[in-house]
Amino acid sequence: MIAGGAMKGKKTPQDWEKNIKLLQTYPSEVPGMENDLFRVLALSYDNLSKANVKSCFIYCSMFPEDREISYKQLIELWIGEGFLDECHHIHDARARGEEIIEQLKLACLLESGQSEKHVKMHDVIRDMALWLACENGEKKNKCVIKEHGRWIEGHEIAEWKETQRMSLWDNSIEDSTEPPDFRNLETLLASGESMKSFPSQFFTHMSVIRVLDLSNSELMVLPAEIGNLKTLHYLNLSKTEIESLPMKLKNLTKLRCLILDDMEKLETIPSQLISSLSSLQLFSLYASIGWDRDWGFLLEELACLKHVSDISILLRSVLHTQKSVDSHKLGRSIRRLSLRDCTGMTTMELSPYLQILQIWRCFDLADVKINLGRGQEFSKLSEVEIIRCPKLLHLTCLAFAPNLLSLRVEYCESMQEVITEDEEIGISEVEQCSDAFSVLTTLSLSYLSNLRSICGGALSFPSLREITVKHCPRLRKLTFDSNTNCLRKIEGEQHWWDGLDWEDQTIKQKLTQYFVPK
User: Fold this and answer.
1) How far apart are CA 6 and CA 25, in angstroms?
2) How does pLDDT run across 20-67, given as a tens digit for each residue?
3) E-assigned strands of 124-205?
4) In whole angstroms, how far apart are CA 498 and each of 493, 502, 515?
5) Which among 78, 237, 385, 484 would be 20 to 30 A from 313, CA to CA?
6) By its UniProt entry, which InterPro entries does this protein fall under (predicted)?
7) Which residues is 515 bridged to in the sheet?
8) Contacts of 386 (CB under 8 A, 6+ apart)
9) Which CATH number fits domain 372-518: 3.30.460, 2.60.40, 3.30.390, 3.80.10?
């Protein structure tokens, strides 16, 4: 109705085309949008329970149009902004952040993304949020969003003195003779391949900034003046081209979150830099792809920090891996652990606090286990990836991971069963498997030349959505039963699928529609 009203009085094709373009790109500029549509939509916003929930909602408009935002990234930004300060522990803040996301989804202010644990904001909702962020459109420069690879000229920057939050997505910035005045700037998100450098002294006048995200850019050198941003709570340099961190960052004594994931060219972190960040709660130096550095030397500095309780780290030596296990502080704090090339490590005992585990090229590893004497299970563990561990016999410990969502195993030639009977802990095969993989959504098994079964007993896989099986010639049975109802994709070779043995042909008939030959 409002869109129709916007077209009222438009007689020529050119008028219609102009207004259609406005509706698609700048709906707030269309007559009637602010007074009618936005005010109706704002009722959902007004009904949100708390002021910090409203702040969390408006913050989502800082991302580019149609961008899917991960829960993890969004919640960590909210932590940096102080929106979740009601929580005294970072893990409570993460849980509260997820609650807020679900609340916003129920209010139809956010939508589920295509990817798991991602959300997106409808274009009209986003425009309304920006309208609210700019005080019902009265202060246009309070929140500045620039995207789509623009060239930002110096005269534009000069107009942003009052800006509180700024997003520069995949932009380039013109150099200027005078450092810009950003005395009110609290948030700067500057990301994208076009962002290769910043003008000289660009960060000089940012006296109240809390959040600085330079991730996914081609930045090669971190500007030295960032070390003077003493109000900074959050710094993200992930997936940049930076080779070293300046020692001057030790001045960031209010920093809560430091995120350095997938910085493939990072070579140097000065000694005593990390231990100087006395307010640090979250430290992430994780690699989802190749990285030939061992950052285990940072463990001692991290263990000295009073507030740190959320660590993600890449380790490449048995010594450092053992240190992470032996230290009570580190054992409770390491949430994401990536082990690479730990030659000589035959057994890995996991902390029950782990959430994500990645093990690559540990050629001597034969057993991964948890110390059940602690009376705990892997209640936190949600993702496991094991690649090129040829001596690994099984992953029976995962029978005690009730919240495992994703499992990927590749090139583990000695493995015959993923979960097998373990006489040492005295639990029968059937008992072990009864609740195993009950919430698993993704399972990938590749190049396991001796794998004969996933588990000796039948598993229902009630939550499994996608399974991939490649080059597992001895896996002749899929232990699915009639309760496997969520499965929507089975990927594998045609000859493997045709040769499977089925105890119940009705299950095969039910699942054939989801098979995708590879």
Assistant:
1) 14
2) 344 444 444 545 455 555 666 667 788 888 899 999 999 999 998 888
3) 143-146, 151-152, 165-169, 172-173, 187-191
4) 9, 11, 11
5) 78
6) LRR_dom_sf (IPR032675), LRR_R13L4/SHOC2-like (IPR055414), Plant_NBS-LRR (IPR050905), WH-like_DNA-bd_sf (IPR036388), WHD_DRP (IPR058922)
7) 490
8) 359, 368, 392, 395, 408, 409, 410, 412
9) 3.80.10
